[in-house]
Every structure is written in C-alpha cells, then in structure tokens.
Structure prediction request, 174 residues.
Amino acid sequence: MLELAILGFLYEAPLHGYELRKRITALTGHVRPVGESTLYPAIKRLEKAGLLARETQPGVGAAPRHVLTLTDEGRAELLRRLAEPEQLEITDENRWFTLLAFLRHLSEPKLQAAVLRRRLSFLEEPASFFYDGERPLAAEELDDPFRSGILVVARATSAAELKWLRTTLRTLES
Prediction:
C-alpha cells in the first residue's frame, strides 16, 4: 500500500520526502500513520529497484532538499500495479482506497473497468464478520447490538459502493 501510494503521488509530480509524507498521511494516515521509519526505507527500496530517482536541490534554508521523481520504469511499474492489483488490494478496504486513488492513471477505460469488476465481484459475494459455521450471519440474527451495528454499517457502506461501482462501470463501458 505504501509503495503504491509513493509511486502514485510521484506519477503526478516530483516531490520531496516531507511533501510526499504529508500527501500519503492525508490519504491513509487515519488508518495507517506513515512515519519516517517506514517511508524512507520504502523510498530507498524503490530507488534501489530503479523506480525512483533522487535529485538534490538547494533548500529554502541551509539544508538541501532531496526531490524524488519516477523513472520510466517507475511509471511502468505503477501502471502494472494498477492494472494487475493483487487480490488483497481488491479485498482490503484500505488497500482498495489507495488503489482507487490512483486508478485514473490507467488511460484505458477497459483496464479501469476490469479492476472495478474485480471489486464488484468481491462485494457481491455473501459475507459477514460473524458466522454460524460456514453460514454468514445477518445483523438481525445477532443478539449483540454492537456486532449488529458493525454489520449494519458495513451493509450500508457496501450498498453505496456497489451503486457507485455499477454506475461507474456503465460509464466506462459505454
């Protein structure tokens, strides 16, 4: 998720580490705060893989700034990850939102629609956070109001996303 966010934001514009961290935190920070101890090792991995380039520029004050840009390989890797996301990026809501934040960079509506179809297929499968054996339980079947609340909120969220997915797919496929 972090690497995808780094590639996605740098696809849009070169950034220095501090600005990149602010943007990633705005996108995912409420769920997974991004600290320097996770961001900078990820940047170094991507740089070592040839996906990022670093340029030192004079800073506003005395310290120089390191501006990061995507290489051609980095741009290609982002597009590959967007077009061929791993299953966890489809099923995990937080990873899905990160993927969705950059899906517009795929220029072909057909490729965008294929990713959305995978998410739609996942959401259409009956599921619950709570089961009776193999059978998913509905909110109405639970005696616990708090567990029931989880299911009510999840159902409403899923309904809204399903509606959005179907509408967006019709637009992309027309």
